[in-house]
Amino acid sequence: MNDAREPLIEVHGLEAWYGKRRILHDVDFRVDAGEIRVIMGGSGSGKSTLLRHLLGLHRATAGSIRLLGTDITRAGPREMQLLRRKLGVSFQGGALLTSLSVGDNVALPLREHHSDLDENQIRIMSRMKLEIVNLGGFHDLMPSQLSGGMVKRAALARAIVMDPQLLFFDEPSAGLDPVVSAELDELILRLRDALRMTIVVVTHELESAFKIADSITVLDQGRILMTGTVDAVRHSDNERIQDLLNRRPREVVVDADAYLRRLTEEAV
Ligand SMILES: Nc1ncnc2c1ncn2[C@@H]1O[C@H](COP(=O)(O)OP(=O)(O)OP(=O)(O)O)[C@@H](O)[C@H]1O
């Protein structure tokens, strides 16, 4: 049965280790249909690690992750392949291929997953998505002819070309000036409203997070400090959250023995 309130993402007790280091601790995480969830946290808090686990790029050490009803901690390659068609991903480093036109870049997922579509259909579908990101008419340009903000939007058009139910966006504002970054925020809101997409955004840009989020999950040292509305996060009395919001650095107490022990453990 298709319950409208069924979560699109449901994570229970997720643990992630890199070698002998535990990176994520007992993470519970749920995203409902139609919301924009921002994952926020300082550098090294585990945001990218969580994202990589949600996408099935890393196997969880413990816990379960359900995406669109599929338990990806148990799914086989075929199931994962089918699931990936329903996911859109725009990664920070996921630049456009410089040897292809903007339109051909956007069309890549269609060519990869939909051998039944003819060239005309592919062209129409990729043009439509370029129009949604305000790049109508830029189909035949090469990526080198676009500004940084336009490249991000073209990459976004590629991420949504298959009409994903779930869109993951890693650090949308990275490397953009404030005006271009604000335009991208508007675009993310438009995708949720016009295309009814459910969107997970990883960012450490507070202004952007507060503008686009329906809810925010705050990560710190691999643990979820809280999940709540923008207001709830802003007014949280958790000291670490207030440190993050006010950009106060964590007081680091270095235990030299523990540090050396960890170095030798990781070298093994
Ligand atoms: N492939 C890896 N192998 C070992 N340790 C890793 C690996 N990737 C990340 N880490 C460690 O895991 C921790 C969390 O890193 P992660 O990249 O998930 O944080 P983040 O919140 O995304 O940080 P940033 O905002 O700086 O990208 C860090 O201590 C990092 O050093």
Automatic annotation (TrEMBL):
<dbReference type="InterPro" id="IPR027417">
    <property type="entry name" value="P-loop_NTPase"/>
</dbReference>
<keyword id="KW-0813">Transport</keyword>
<keyword id="KW-0547">Nucleotide-binding</keyword>
<dbReference type="InterPro" id="IPR003593">
    <property type="entry name" value="AAA+_ATPase"/>
</dbReference>
<keyword id="KW-0067">ATP-binding</keyword>
<dbReference type="GO" id="GO:0005524">
    <property type="term" value="F:ATP binding"/>
</dbReference>
<dbReference type="InterPro" id="IPR003439">
    <property type="entry name" value="ABC_transporter-like_ATP-bd"/>
</dbReference>
<protein>
    <submittedName>
        <fullName>Phospholipid/cholesterol/gamma-HCH transport system ATP-binding protein</fullName>
    </submittedName>
</protein>
<dbReference type="GO" id="GO:0016887">
    <property type="term" value="F:ATP hydrolysis activity"/>
</dbReference>
<feature type="domain" description="ABC transporter">
    <location>
        <begin position="9"/>
        <end position="246"/>
    </location>
</feature>
<dbReference type="Pfam" id="PF00005">
    <property type="entry name" value="ABC_tran"/>
</dbReference>
